[in-house]
Amino acid sequence: MKVKKINNLVMAALFSALICIATFFITVGAPVAGGYINIGDCFVFAAIIVLPKGYSMLAAGIGSALADLIGGHAIYAPASFVIKALMALAAWLIYSKSKKKIFSKAVASFAAEIIMCAGYFAYEALILGYGLGAAGNLIPNAIQAVFGIILSVILASAFEKSKIISKYR
Questions:
Q1: By the 8 A CB rule, do 133 and 116 touch?
Q2: What are the backbone dihedrals phi and psi of residue 74, each rounded to the nearest 5 degrees, phi first?
Q3: 83: Cβ–Cβ under 8 A, 6 or more apart, which residues?
Q4: Distant-in-sequence contacts of 71-79, Cβ < 8 A, 24+ apart
Q5: Radius of gyration of the chain measured on its C-alpha atoms
Q6: How far apart are CA 40 and CA 112, in angstroms?
Q7: How confident is the model at residue 103 (pLDDT cuts 50, 70, 90)?
Q8: pLDDT at 66
Q9: Crossing angle between the packed helical segments 40-50 and 2-25, to the nearest 10 degrees
Q10: Average pLDDT for residues 19-40, to the nearest whole number?
């Protein structure tokens, strides 16, 4: 049992690093509020496929918050930690109960992306005080969400076909 916990911790650290790298290095700037579009969400989804719920939530939150800190967007780090952990939780709950078909992957990823869009809008509008000006980032967040959903389904399917998950478990 101890070995399994260590393996999960190591894999969570690996996914945190993957999420951080995909979030920080593969970006396009968003015009409002200094945000950016990234592909880190597909690795958030990959983490929920491989890891238990708590570990995937930590990987998602830590990796995304680190990317914000490294990228000079420290003001978003607390929001990213919470939002991405909640994304992982929602996707994990849906995906773990599904028959793991492409449709269920898309639904799980879609639910996570709704949380991302709503979460950042609420954070910018209420906490950062942008008010309705936060709506300016809804389109870039929606674009990120679409790419996140598509890439998540592709990556999840590749993981399952390659038997990576069954070898890990």
A1: no
A2: -55, -30
A3: 64, 115, 116, 119, 120, 123
A4: 71/23, 71/24, 71/27, 71/36, 73/34, 73/35, 73/36, 75/128, 76/35, 76/120, 76/123, 79/119, 79/120, 79/123, 79/127
A5: 15
A6: 12
A7: confident
A8: 97
A9: 170
A10: 77
Residue 144 — very low, low, confident or very high, per pLDDT cuts 50/70/90?
confident
From the centroid of its chain, how far is CA 158? 18
Query: How would you classify residue 129: left for phi > 0, otherwise alpha for psi between -120 and 50, otherwise beta?
Result: left
Question: Is the pLDDT at 33 greater than 80, yes or no?
Answer: no
Tens of pLDDT, residue by residue over 113-133, are: 999 999 999 999 999 999 888
Q: Between β-strands 27-29 and 36-38, what pairing exists: parallel, antiparallel or unpaired?
A: antiparallel
Tell me the two tokens of residue 12.
């969570």
And the tokens for 135?
A: 């709506």
Q: What integer is the mean pLDDT of 44-69?
A: 95
Structure-token match 């680190």, residue found: 66
Query: Structure tokens of 7?
Result: 């393996």
